[in-house]
Amino acid sequence: MIFEQIQIGGDRNFAYLVGDETTRHALAVDVGYNPQHVVDRLTELDLDLKYIVATHGHADHIGCIPDLRQLTGATFAAHPDIPGIDIPLNDADTLPLGDTTINVLHCPGHSPDSIVLLVNSQKLISGDELFVGKIGGTTTDPQAREQHQNLRSVLLTLTDDIEVWPGHDFGTQPSSTIGHERATNPFLIQPTFEDFLHLKNNWADYKREHGID
Q1: Under CATH, domain 2-210 is a member of which superfamily?
Q2: pLDDT > 90: what percent of the chain?
Q3: CA distances from 71 to 26, 34, 48, 81, 116 (A)
Q4: pTM attached to this predicted model
C-alpha cells in the first residue's frame, strides 16, 4: 500500500493519497486546495486516480474537487448528503481499491455528514472529527453531544495501535494513534459530557493555561 499525507494549503489542511501497489489505482481524500499538486504527485508515483473522497462537506475539504475531477476523470465518493457525488458512502460501506481495503465509518459531530476512513485496518483518516490532541469544532450543544457520543462509540472502539491521520496539522505532530489520543487528548479524557462541553466552551482559556498552540 502507498499512503501519503500532503500539506495542501488552507488552514494547515492535510490531503491524503492512498494507492494500491498491485493495480496502481489510487484514491485522494480531502483535496480542498491545490489539485494540480495532487495530480503531479500521482504522476510521480505512477498512480491512476479512481476515487476522490471527502470526509465531510466543508469548503476547505471539497473546494477543489470539481477541478480534480476534471483533471483526472475520477469518481467522487462521499456521504449521501453532500451534493454532486457519484458514489454515496454510508456507515460500514467498503470502497474497493485492489488489494487495499477502505472501510467507511459514519461519525457525525463536527458536521452531520462526517465520515472517517479506515485503511487496511491500520490507518484512520479522521477528517475533522479527531485531531492530534484536539477535536473538531461544534456550534451547538446538541452537536457537541452527538460528537461526544460518536467519538466514544465509533472512534474509541478502535484498537490502540491504529494510526490517526487528521484533516489539519493542528497538533504537535502530524499523526498519532488511537491509544495515544485515548490517553492524552484533553477532550477524550473528560469523564462526562458536561466536562467535555465545559472544555469546549472554555478551550481558549485551557490552551492558554497549558501552552497549547
Answers
A1: Ribonuclease Z/Hydroxyacylglutathione hydrolase-like (3.60.15.10)
A2: 99
A3: 14, 12, 12, 24, 25
A4: 0.96
